[in-house]
């Protein structure tokens, strides 16, 4: 029997549940819907999202009046009468699932993702549309007609060499560029259905650290060396909630434990220089996630870490993302990291998205010459040994940006047509490439 997804739905949305669908789970022997009859005091109808989210499904199952035989691992999602708010990500493997006490919730089990207007696969958390940005005094745009989307619970990896505009895009998104340093030339950013006004610093300040957060590249320069770790995390809670000082401290302690900081009570009183690099990065992750953001931007969070700690940090981000259903933008030049965690990939060169699509398609069938160059530069563990392939030249600055295709001066396929800027044209399966000669195999056949 396949695994089943458990979701909480408002009872008013499931008064007339659909009949059992054998096409969804042809070998399932249990009904798909279980009405929850009561709820324990710890899970009152007015319980907070955190109280609901932290209640283990095993305890819910023990309080049951209705049971059903199932098998498999069950990821749980919780929805309130107002709709979806968090992915519980509690996993159990049990022969019985029982209902908890409630008069306004229903537990739904099915073999596929729950079709819901609030949590459907097409919901967009962040959409960047035709975004262009130019620094003051620069003759050309630093960010040039950038488009991408981020979905809840998914990871978009933005890859490219240093100087390609990855961090500038994220800083602009967070409203962290210095005032007057740059001008938005075109486009917009839409977050949770609302257009971001990057010039409204008051609104952006309320958004930063609450619904949208960022992990910076070097935690030692991001953490304040004059304040204790606990004080810095507590400040983030107090800035975005009405919690008391003691409640904020409790929340800070809980998030430090959640990200795997040992002896968290002691670390609350430590200064940043007293922690290792991996511990400081965990503190940055804790600070970013303490207010349950919908979007996390991670700007090369593993660059300065050894491979063991890097793997732990990536696993931590992945687990927390599954638990909270947050969308993630991972900025990196490490294609190994991309292969490990990406759902979708956007390849950026000189401020332009040159290729984007599902990670599997990008790795199995790269179509832009720059993407192919990046892939070819990865060392191989097997096969004949030789010099690594390189992409000749350097990323152009805004002072010497070529007309048309920005990669033309380094491209082995460059032709006169490359003096015209190529559009980001769709291929198959969500794959899109900004190249006049894509798909490349067709161009190579014609040239042969």
Residue runs with pLDDT of under 50 for 5 or more positions: 1-120
Strand count, sense and barrel status of the largest sheet are: 8 strands, mixed
Quick one: overall form? globular
Helix/strand class: alpha+beta
**Topology, number of strands:** 21
Task: Give the amount of beta strand, in percent.
Answer: 15-25%
Strand order of the largest sheet: 15-16-17-12-18-19-21-20
Report the mean per-residue pLDDT as an integer: 75
Q: Number of helical runs?
A: 14
**Head-to-tail CA distance between termini:** 52 Å
Rg on CA atoms, Å: 24 Å
Helix content: 25-40%
Short description, anyone?
With 448 residues, the chain is of the alpha+beta class. 27% of the residues lie in helices and 23% in strands.
Could you explain the architecture of this structure?
- The protein is of the alpha+beta class.
- The protein has 14 helices and 21 strands.
- The strands form five sheets. An eight-stranded mixed sheet has the order 15-16-17-12-18-19-21-20, sandwiched between helices. A five-stranded mixed sheet has the order 2-9-1-5-6. Strands 11-10-13-14 form a four-stranded antiparallel sheet, covered by helices on one side.
- The N terminus is likely disordered.
């Amino acid at each position: 029997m396949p695994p089943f997804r458990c979701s909480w739905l408002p009872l008013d949305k499931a008064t007339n549940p659909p009949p059992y669908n054998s096409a969804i789970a042809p070998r399932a022997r249990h009904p798909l819907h279980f009405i929850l009859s009561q709820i324990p005091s710890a899970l009152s109808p007015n319980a907070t999202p955190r109280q609901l989210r932290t209640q283990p499904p095993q305890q819910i199952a023990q309080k049951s009046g209705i049971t059903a035989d199932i098998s498999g691992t069950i990821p749980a999602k919780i929805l309130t009468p107002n709709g979806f708010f968090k992915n519980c990500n509690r996993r159990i493997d049990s022969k019985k699932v029982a209902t908890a006490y409630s008069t306004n919730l229903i537990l739904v089990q099915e073999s596929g993702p729950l079709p819901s207007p609030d949590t459907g696969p097409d919901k967009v958390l962040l959409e960047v549309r035709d975004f262009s940005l130019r620094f003051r005094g620069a003759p050309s745009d630093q960010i040039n007609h950038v488009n991408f989307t981020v979905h809840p619970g998914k990871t978009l990896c933005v890859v490219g060499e240093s100087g390609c505009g990855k961090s500038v895009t994220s800083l602009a998104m967070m409203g962290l560029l210095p005032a007057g340093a740059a001008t938005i030339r075109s486009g917009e950013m839409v977050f949770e259905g609302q257009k971001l006004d990057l010039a409204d610093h008051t609104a952006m300040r309320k958004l930063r650290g609450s619904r949208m957060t960022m992990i910076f590249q070097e935690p030692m320069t991001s953490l304040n060396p004059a304040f204790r770790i606990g004080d810095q995390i507590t400040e983030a809670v107090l800035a975005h909630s009405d919690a008391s000082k003691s409640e904020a401290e409790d929340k800070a302690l809980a998030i430090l434990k959640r990200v795997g900081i040992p002896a968290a009570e002691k670390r609350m009183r430590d200064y940043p220089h007293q922690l290792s690099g991996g511990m400081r990065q965990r503190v940055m992750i804790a600070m970013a996630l303490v207010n349950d953001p919908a979007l996390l931007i991670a700007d090369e969070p593993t660059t300065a870490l050894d491979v063991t700690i890097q793997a732990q940090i990536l696993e931590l981000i992945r687990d927390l993302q599954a638990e909270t259903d947050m969308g993630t933008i991972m900025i990196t030049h490490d294609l190994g990291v991309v292969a490990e965690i990406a759902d979708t990939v956007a390849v950026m060169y000189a401020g332009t998205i040159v290729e984007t699509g599902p990670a599997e398609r990008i790795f199995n069938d790269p179509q832009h010459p720059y993407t192919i160059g990046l892939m070819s530069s990865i060392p191989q563990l097997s096969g004949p040994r030789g010099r690594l392939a390189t992409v000749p030249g350097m990323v152009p600055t805004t002072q010497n940006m070529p007309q048309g295709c920005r990669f033309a001066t380094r491209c082995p396929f460059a032709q006169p047509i490359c003096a015209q800027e190529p559009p980001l044209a769709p291929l198959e399966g969500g794959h899109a490439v900004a190249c006049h000669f894509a798909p490349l195999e067709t161009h190579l056949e014609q040239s042969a």
